[in-house]
Design a protein that fits this description.
The complex is a heterodimer. Chain A has nine helices and four strands, in the order ααβαβαβαβαααα. Chain A is of the alpha+beta class. A four-stranded antiparallel beta sheet of chain A has the order 2-3-1-4. Chain A is elongated. Chain B contains eight helices and ten strands. In chain B, helix 3 crosses helix 4, helix 3 packs parallel to helix 5 and helix 4 packs across helix 5. The radius of gyration of chain B is 18 Å and the shape is globular. The chains are: A alpha+beta, B alpha/beta. The interface between A and B is medium-sized, with 16 and 25 residues.
Chain lengths: ~300, ~230
């Protein structure tokens, strides 16, 4: 059995060597096609991660009416605490807000000279439970908060979250559509490359059939050839993607400011890389299977 | 046991190669198929080897009904047959050794056994020194001997030989016949198609004469007399 396996492998490699150019072309095209799909997947992965980190930062700020008496604040905070999804609340008085502004302005704090804290509205910072950080649930919470008469306005980064969510959705969709089209193209290419190999081995295949070679014995080397093409193509795509990632990482990292600079730009995990390689092999196998169905009957 | 029942074969170009052939060859027999060119000898052998399908009739070889529509194990049938035919050519880009070894490789023979068996059969056909040569460097007679070696290396239960000695010189013809007789002595069934009457007359084996695709059912001596 081992010698049969070795002989099958030997035949697969001999076939590839004998049709080196078509094989290299197929590997290159598979590599580039998978690279395109991987680029979209990687962007989608980073978008998802970015959104997740963004959502962790999301909180609500409820601005109270300026004339709200201080002795009503505790009651307002209690009402907010009782709303579903609220993790914690923090009252920010006009004096706290002014101190915060001064702190953020640093050396330019002199621009605030002469401004009284009372021009700033008192506010309540609200932390949300993780499962309540989605857009529809936040909207529901805001509508409930607005029913509290002392609340003037509620703010959160709604538009940003919605834009990012939409973009992320679009990236995933593009990834699947492009992936589907490119996978079909890859199967077509692998199948046609193997057709060339099969044509060049026509006499040998015919002689082997006459000698009693089983259909599996004849087909398996072509399956292995497809498998190797898929694996090498996927390997090329991962390698190219990593090079692109390294270049982009160096260019992009210095441009990120604030909390975003702390969000790492991710590359695929080892598990995902293995999945890509395995995917390449499955594609190759499928392409060779189609070729053998068409040309090895 | 080879059995053919009412086998006929008409090619798509309407040429009828065989008509209502019945035959039964017990295991271990040596049988000549004789007849002029176009008499259906090659078609009959091809049907037995599973290359051609009969238009009608039934063929059973070693219990396998090869004409059954659901018969899929043609490769198993071929593993027990050594087929010598001008249509079954050698691989031109391989050496003599590789051409013969391929017959063993396809059936999963271990490398050591391949080495031993190929060496042995090449010696028996007088090509032990030519193993590494490309088949293109061989004469037609030598190539025929490689074809014979390839058919016999697997020690088949049945040998179907279509004019195996046609292009060989007298000495080599005798050696090849000697080789086939050795296999026959060891129990291999042999069906040999030839136009060579001298060859047929030399051996006391059953002759199935064919003419225009029909079995003539007559002894070779009578046939020779009629033609004479």
């Amino acid at each position: 059995m081992i010698h049969l396996f070795r002989y099958t492998l030997f035949r697969a490699f001999r076939n590839m060597k004998g049709n080196l150019f078509p094989n290299l072309t197929a590997i290159g095209i598979i590599g580039i096609s998978l690279l395109l799909v991987s680029i979209f997947s990687l962007i989608a992965l980073n978008f998802s991660y970015f959104l997740k980190r963004w959502e962790e930062k999301i909180g609500l700020i409820a601005y109270l009416k300026r004339e709200t008496p201080v002795n009503e604040v505790e009651a307002i905070l209690n009402r907010i605490r009782e709303l579903p999804g609220v993790e914690s609340v923090k009252y920010v008085s006009p004096f706290d807000a002014m101190a915060f502004l001064e702190d953020r302005l640093g050396e330019q704090r002199s621009v605030l000279d002469g401004i009284q804290p009372k021009v700033l509205p008192p506010s309540v910072e609200i932390d949300l439970k993780r499962e309540y950080r989605t857009s529809p649930q936040m909207k529901e919470l805001i509508s409930k908060m607005k029913k509290i008469p002392q609340i003037e306005e509620v703010q959160y980064g709604q538009e940003w979250v919605e834009t990012f969510s939409g973009l992320n959705h679009f990236m995933h969709l593009t990834q699947w559509i492009l992936g589907g089209l490119l996978f079909a193209a890859m199967i077509f290419i692998i199948s046609n490359t193997l057709q060339l190999t099969i044509s060049s081995r026509k006499d040998e295949i015919e002689v082997m059939k006459m000698m009693g070679a089983s259909p599996a014995f004849i087909r398996i080397p072509f399956y292995i050839e497809g498998l190797i093409q898929g694996l090498l193509g996927a390997g090329v795509s991962v390698l190219l993607l990593y090079l692109l990632y390294e270049i982009l990482l160096r260019r992009l990292t210095p441009l990120l400011k604030g909390w975003m600079s702390a969000v790492p730009i991710l590359f695929f995990s080892g598990e995902t890389i293995v999945t890509i390689l395995a995917g390449g092999m499955v594609l190759g196998l499928f392409g060779s299977f189609i070729a053998s169905m068409r040309f090895l009957r | 046991m080879i059995q053919m029942f009412h086998v006929s074969k008409t090619y798509p170009n309407k040429i009828t190669a065989l008509t209502d052939i019945n035959l039964e060859i017990p295991p271990g027999d040596f049988v000549f198929l004789s007849g002029p060119s176009g008499s259906g000898k090659s078609t009959l052998l091809k049907i037995l080897f599973g290359i051609e399908k009969p238009t009608s009739g039934e063929v059973i070889i070693h219990g396998m009904r090869i004409t059954h529509p659901r018969f899929k194990k043609i490769y198993q049938l071929r593993r027990m047959i050594g087929f010598i035919s001008p249509d079954f050519r050698l691989l031109r880009d391989r050496t003599v050794w590789e051409n013969v070894a391929l017959a063993l490789e396809v059936v999963g023979c271990p490398p050591q056994e391949i080495k031993r068996k190929v060496g042995e059969i090449l010696s028996r056909v007088g090509l032990q020194e030519r193993g590494r040569d490309s088949v293109l460097s061989l004469s037609a007679g030598e190539q025929q001997r490689v074809i014979i070696a390839r058919a016999l290396v697997n020690q088949p239960l049945l040998i179907l030989a279509d004019e195996p000695t046609g292009i060989l010189d007298t000495r080599m013809k005798e050696e090849v016949m000697g080789l086939l007789l050795d296999f026959h002595q060891n129990g291999t069934t042999i069906l040999l198609a030839t136009r060579d009457r001298d060859l047929i007359q030399k051996f006391p084996y059953q002759v199935i004469p064919l003419q225009e695709g029909r079995r003539m059912d007559e002894k070779i001596e009578e046939g020779v007399k009629e033609e004479g």
